[in-house]
Fold:
Amino acid sequence: MSALTKLLFCSALAVFLMVADGRFQLVVTARAVLATALLPVERALMVPREILLGGRDYLEGISQARAAEDAARVQMVRQAERVAQVDLLERENQRLRALLELRPAVTVRSLAAEVLYEAADPFSRKVFIDRGERHGVVAASPVVNESGVMGQVTRVYPLTAEVTLLTDKDAAIPVLNTRTQQRSAAFGGPGQGAALELRYMAANSDVKVGDVLTTSGVDGVYPSGLPVATVAAVERQADAGFARITLQPSAPLDGVRHVLVLEPLSTQLPPPPPPEPEAKVDPRSKRKP
Structure:
């Protein structure tokens, strides 16, 4: 029997078996029996590969665990240093306040609220929250989230309240430059963008891109130290008396669902002293010309 004859016979047999298996499922049982019989062999042949992969994963896991442990130790050391510094600063602050007989820091009460919807006015940036007069919200209450100041309550209803965002054209907030300790005021931008402006700053004022602005606390509304914005751009023109300073708000003003409504600072500050009465002049003490 020649090789060509064997090749033709095997090819015909292979084609016959494929057609028979496709139409009559003749070798399904044989295939299942063969797969079951060869399964232990396949598993045995896979053992060296699994050992190799498992050993590599084990060694990589050990190295990653050691790296994470080293990073955690460094972080713990840094946190311990920061805790020690904070404790030192707190004790120093207490001593200075006791020395200067200053009143303790004001504790601001807060109320959690959820943003319901934005105002329909396209020329303003206002939202409505699900807390109102019945929940203790009052006008001028600051509204913040975890990133910083968002705005201020401008109208109060029984069950809801209107919040004017910082980017509204009529919004204004006193700020403090944390780098230079210079006080100024931030205003809402003229357009509908999410930017603020630092107005009435001299062209040669010490303001740089990246400066962080926080609430100054001098208005009796916002507690001091809350993040407000970061200086995004500074334009100085020789023929202009003021610099054009653009700010990026610290808190996202779009897509926020949960906020905190703070109690206005003026409700916890001591009342101002009453004005002194004017001294009355006795008309009889005046000399006649």
Notes: The radius of gyration is 37 Å. The first helix runs from residue 3 to 24.
